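Hey, quick one: can you model this chain's 3D structure?
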Amino acid sequence: MIAKPRLYLIFPNIFDFKGGIQVYSKFLLKALQDIYPEADYDVFLKYDKYSLKQPEKLQFLSSTRFHYFGDLPKLLQPILFATKIIILAILQHPVVVISTHVNYAIVCYILKFFTGIPYWVVAHGLEVWDIENKATKFALEKADKIISVSNYTRQRLLQDTNIDSEKIVILPNTFDASKFPINSKPAYLLKRYNLTDEQPVILTVTRLGSTAKYKGYDQILYALVKVRLYLPNVYFILAGKGDDIPRIKALVTNLNLQDCVTIAGFVPDKELCDHYNLCDVFALPSKGEGFGIVFLEALACGKPVLAGNQDGSIDPLADGKLGCLVDPDNVEEIAENLIQILQGDYSNRVIYQPKYLQEKTIEAFDFSQFRASLAKLVSGN
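Sure thing. Here's the predicted structure for all 381 residues.
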């Protein structure tokens, strides 16, 4: 990159919603600005609104220009979004355009076709597995570099597309380890959920949307019926928000689990670490994760983690070395492993070593590691 580069970053949003792609986008911008503090940054946010106050902007360089499109009418939004990116890029000629969602790859391709400006695309999970839109798939294949957040997603791309393997590099998700220390169970949460300090607690933190059933929270509820036979006082906290909550509540009632399940709703950042420290096992037997930042957060808090063995969850758990991987469709297997973990009988004794789990997770996935890997990537090494 040249001495005074201009970088374009295209994100869905980073201020008004917190999901895996949004968190990754925010860390990517922060790392780039640490590496190239002298660069100019234009950040295009399709869904964020200028009208909302965003104090989080203060963590980025004051020279960063944010372009908001969330206030626009929905019919005009995609047209004006693409048009502004293309016109500004023709005038300013950034050294690279980086998109953290594959849906914006078409705009990047059009821009490169007319100007030669290279573009990179970040590949997370479901959005790049089995892409049905031919134009989107073509634009992804023509990207100069594809950053995959997990080895699993990289393998899926190689299997489903005609992308040169040399173009797909892995830059895993990251997290701020300083926000997730190991602590005892917080007294205020024990009181809130009416729990005792010795009571076994299962925790899931995820999006609870009608399109997110692949996350596996239903399977935990079904498994809980059996777990209770061995651990009568077990308690399950399901944290998250989304339009699937009414159906989940009905399922809890149908399974007669009302006295051992709390649907906690959205957990604010200031309470997230405390919730991890409250639990005895973090469980998310998903089959659609590109990676799963929540696994890093739980492991950093020294907690045993149960995850699915059919998606990117494999990466944060180091292929099962740091946790328990199960068939996400097998309720019996989920139940048996939860029972073993909570009774202290799980075969991989590493999961009962909080400091070890924390150290290995920080060693591989802390933000400093992410930034160092990105620096090598952008310098071409």
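One thing worth noting: The chain is about 40% helix and 15% strand.
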